[in-house]
Design goal:
- The strands form 2 sheets. Strands 4-3-1-2-9-10 form a 6-stranded parallel beta sheet, sandwiched between helices. A 4-stranded parallel beta sheet has the order 6-5-7-8.
- It is built from 12 helices and 10 strands.
- It is 41% helix and 18% strand.
- The protein is α/β, with parallel strands linked by helices.
- The radius of gyration is 17 Å and the shape is globular.
- The two termini are 30 Å apart.
Length: 262
């Protein structure tokens, strides 16, 4: 496998662009192929069997693109399907949870909150990865938040009301940090800061994953030597919707192609 082969990145929609942004920052010389499964968004309320079908279809798509690795820019799939499919492909598949847990393990924190989709919370993946380090994890499923981001609704009164409802139980537990356990949620940080929360309160697993990805590529001599970023974007749903909504988060979406539509 050549080191200049692309890296695949996938999520259920525009949320994974928060991961892609961190990857480009950490790895400015790589080719990235981003896939958003916008036809089937959200993933958070899907069964394990449904998630496995989606995950394998996307990984097969990336296999045909001859990627050198795949980034699961989706907490729901990182929590529920990554371990089940990891050995089925001949490229490395990296997820969000392990790098974040390793980072958090160095904290002197006793209480951490997690906001995530229902499927991620039910999996207890973050809880199981972090609590062995002596840190208590308080979880809150937030089924309504993905749609706010997918619809570009980042400043509405309805969003503020919903955020208050979801965050109150965690803040009542006096958590010291909050894990953004869905790739859509970093785009909601400005709205959450209006509730009096500071920048250092939030933990974005995408940052940890980007660092882990660079370490993996370096160790395996797979770093790109072309000295430039190349980006391709694919979706399963409407290309214009994705392009329009993505502009709120990521300036470099020029062309979007439609695949995996059935």
């Amino acid at each position: 496998m050549e080191n200049n082969n692309p890296i695949g990145v996938f999520d259920s929609g525009v949320g994974g662009l928060s991961v892609l942004k961190e990857l480009v920052r950490e790895l400015p010389n790589e080719k990235f192929i981003y896939f958003g499964d916008t036809l089937r968004v959200p993933y958070g309320d899907k069964s394990i069997d449904e998630l496995l079908i989606c995950t394998r279809r996307i990984l097969d798509f990336f296999k045909a693109k001859e990627v050198k690795s795949v980034i699961v820019a989706c907490n729901t799939c990182s929590a529920n399907t990554l371990k089940l499919v990891k050995d089925e492909y001949d490229f490395e598949i990296l997820g969000l949870i392990e790098p974040a847990a390793k980072y958090i393990s160095s904290f002197k924190t006793q209480k951490i909150g997690l906001i995530a989709t229902t499927a991620t919370v039910k999996s207890n993946a973050y809880k199981n990865a972090i609590e062995p380090f002596g840190i208590k994890v308080f979880q809150q499923n937030c089924p309504k938040l993905v749609k706010f981001v997918e619809n570009g609704e980042l400043e509405s009164e309805n969003l503020q009301k919903t955020l208050k409802e979801y965050l109150k139980p965690l803040l009542d537990e006096q958590i010291e940090h909050l894990i953004l356990g869905c790739t859509h949620y970093p785009f909601l940080v400005p709205a959450m800061k209006k509730l009096g929360l500071k920048d250092d309160f939030f933990i974005n697993p995408a940052v940890c994953l980007a660092i882990k990805t660079k370490e993996f590529l370096k160790q395996n001599k797979l770093l790109n030597n072309l000295r430039k970023t190349e980006l391709e974007f694919f979706v399963s749903g409407d290309t214009e919707d994705f392009k329009r909504n993505s502009k709120l988060f990521f300036d470099e979406v020029a062309e979007v192609k439609q695949v995996l539509t059935d």
